[in-house]
Specification:
alpha+beta; eight-stranded mixed sheet; binds zinc ion; L-fuculose-1-phosphate Aldolase
């Protein structure tokens, strides 16, 4: 059942690892079931994001309990269950530990519109700083969902990682990739003495709108799925593998 959805979730996991958002067997992504909105598909524990298959993906309910599937669930399931419970328009949640975002979170600085990527976060990215520990209880999951609030689709967990969410899995992945890249570019600017020029204030909203469209999310996702399946590319999609 739900083979098409599971295939999309599996593709998302492969793209995330291929684009550098993997952390060995940590990190997870979920998708709400359209006809059973109190249940969601999720990556199982104990394997890489890129090792998901239609057979091993698990189903979990909004109480964080596994209802189907052969594999164990992540102990940070609460990030997913509490966001999906409180944000009924959200259908997909990603949690990852990407390097640039984690390093950036240690600076205690706001994310700035240094680049196109940073522009889409011009309204601010909330930072969860109640703990730097893992989110292994429902109470912590509730606190993360509270910090995210009723509208935001991205959050930084201080000294830990990121959370992104959206009505679509394509946008959830896209926001995660953009957030990591925005952090990496600002880190580079900070290391070179700090950014002195930013995207103009009067341009940032228009730029963010142009760079944030459903057709773009889908096109980027499908492109990255194709790229992650290329046997002749390295993990950055560059065609340098020779064998
Ligand atoms: Zn984590």
């Amino acid at each position: 059942m739900y083979d098409d959805l599971k295939q999309r979730l599996r593709d998302a996991g492969r793209v995330l690892v291929h684009e550098g958002l993997g952390d060995y067997v940590a990190g997870h992504i979920s998708m709400r079931l359209p006809d059973r909105p109190d249940q969601f598909l999720m990556k199982p524990a104990g394997m890489g994001l890129d090792e998901m298959t239609i057979e091993n993906i698990i189903t979990v309910n909004l109480d964080g309990m596994k209802t189907d599937g052969p594999s164990p669930r992540h102990n940070e399931v609460w990030i997913h269950s509490e966001i999906l419970r409180t944000r009924t328009e959200i259908n997909s949640v990603l949690h990852a530990h990407p390097e640039a975002a984690v390093a950036f979170s240690s600076l205690d600085k706001p994310l700035l519109p240094v680049s196109n990527d940073g522009s889409i976060f011009y309204n601010g990215v909330p930072v969860f700083s109640e703990t730097t520990d893992l989110i292994t209880t429902r109470e912590r999951g509730e606190a993360v969902a509270r910090t995210l609030g009723p509208e935001k689709r991205a959050l930084i967990l201080r000294n830990h990682g990121i959370v992104t969410c959206s009505p679509s899995i394509e946008e959830t992945v896209w926001i995660g990739l953009k957030l990591e890249r925005a952090c990496r570019i600002q880190l580079a600017a900070e290391a070179a003495g700090g950014p002195k020029l930013l995207v103009r204030e009067e341009e940032v909203a228009a730029k963010a709108q142009k760079a944030n469209r459903a057709d773009l999310h889908t096109n980027v996702f499908n492109y990255l799925v194709r790229r992650s399946a290329c046997p002749y590319c390295d993990t950055k999609g560059r065609g340098i593998r020779i064998d």
